[in-house]
Amino acid sequence: MTTLESLPEDVIDIEVFGQLLEMDEEDEREFSQSLVWNYFEQAESTFASMDTALAEKNLQELSTLGHFLKGSSAAVGVIKVRDSCEAMQHYGKQFDADADSPIDEETALSKLTQRLSSVKEEYREAEKVLRTFFGA
User: Fold this and answer.
1) Predicted pLDDT of residue 26
2) Would the pTM of this model clear 0.85, i.e. be above it?
């Protein structure tokens, strides 16, 4: 059985995830598992919406969706997805937080395309870790 301490700290925020587990009844993981499974569904749905918004070049919608998934990811402790979604939120507002400067629409769309691809990979990594943790 996977333990909290054995989770990769670059993928899962151990403190946040540990707090989530504290809400469970004794050794049963029903509550935390249901929250994580809901997160999986929410992430998949949000990625589909992001794909559509990107195809439509809808920067505002991409920013909104990035903000939404950032919050959900933070709540369950999925670090890389949280951070990538924060970057997407800024790119959607035509701002590069790393460079601390505004960017044009074409640059924003390019960065969003790259980030959406990488955030999906980061999500798959976290999903695998969490499914293993819950024995699924």
Assistant:
1) 77
2) yes
